[in-house]
């Protein structure tokens, strides 16, 4: 299907969400074009999931509005729900049902009946490459299969817009890349996709455009290449074996380099050319016990650091699938 990226699918206007004194999303505005993959990139707690929840009508905005395929998420919530699919970060499939029955249930909830509902379910199962496991109970699915099933459940009614909240969190590299291929296939079918992620590589690989979000604000937006162009030069990361020497290393390096800082236990030196700067850096660090020395060239994580002053990397998020399997093993 040929898509027209000039056609607006999602128009977000000053979307805001407060929880008491906490401002979770702060007057966010952006547009997503039809057939586009648009990523919200940021750490946990940045406001990504809250934004998705408001766009999917799961939470009411405190202020502002957004229009999904022309329908207001404030005034036309039922109409919005008919044109969207939602894949939440938490797992929703029923462990006791088969994969097919879970997808069939979603087709029926969207108003399809009889043979048409079954055809919808099978089409979604096949699209997500789950035919061989369709009649197997979900409790026996792997993590990657469960994620694919969640997407199948969300597309059974052929939505125009799909929201994916951290779709590959907790998956191994192979399963993650399989999901990426299937998301690209959905784009080719003309589906508009908004996904949230804190994986830099995921945003770079999948996105037509990326919005970097931090503390409820969108701090930058553009194609991955446009965003990376905002960062000039390289960064050299130094890890010392003795953390107590970080302050001294900062002092020594700052005598020769203008941009030296400490971040997450690393000494970070920003330079125009790491190849030219490295001999001097090594000389200055000759009296320190260095555990790690690495060069990072411009990427989305470095863009995030440049714009926010802190890093994007975090501990892996809670994996509900592994937790369920652990609890089942304990009970048995």
| Largest sheet: number of strands, sense, barrel closure | 6 strands, mixed
User: What's the CATH architecture of the largest domain?
Assistant: 3-Layer(aba) Sandwich
- What's the Cα radius of gyration? 23 Å
What is the CATH homologous superfamily assignment of the largest domain? P-loop containing nucleotide triphosphate hydrolases
CATH level-1 class of the largest domain: Alpha Beta
Q: Strand sequence of the main sheet, in spatial order?
A: 6-7-8-3-9-10
Poorly predicted segments? 314-323
Mean pLDDT: 90
What number of domains?
Answer: 2
Could you tell me the CATH topology label of the largest domain: Rossmann fold
**Intertermini distance:** 49 Å
DSSP helical segment count: 12
Q: Pairing-aware structural class of the strands and helices?
A: alpha/beta
Number of strands: 14
Helix content: 25-40%
What is the percentage of strand-forming residues?
25-35%
Describe it.
- The structure is a single chain.
- With 332 residues, the protein is α/β, with parallel strands linked by helices.
- It folds into 2 domains: 8-227, P-loop containing nucleotide triphosphate hydrolases (Rossmann fold, 3-Layer(aba) Sandwich); 234-297, 2-Layer Sandwich (Alpha-Beta Plaits).
- Helices cover 37% and strands 27% of the residues.
- It is built from 12 helices and 14 strands.
- The protein has helices at residues 48-55, 77-83, 99-109, 114-127, 143-155, 173-188, 200-206, 224-228, 246-254, 274-284, 300-308, 320-331; strands at 8-19, 22-33, 37-41, 63-68, 71-72, 84-87, 161-165, 192-197, 209-214, 217-222, 234-240, 260-263, 266-271, 290-296.
- The strands form 3 sheets. The chain has a 6-stranded mixed β-sheet, with helices on both faces. It has a 4-stranded antiparallel β-sheet with strand order 2-1-4-5, covered by helices on one side.
- Helix 3 (99-109) packs parallel to helix 5 and helix 4 (114-127) crosses helix 5.
- It starts with 7 loop residues before the first strand and ends with a helix.
- Mean pLDDT is 90; it is low at 314-323.
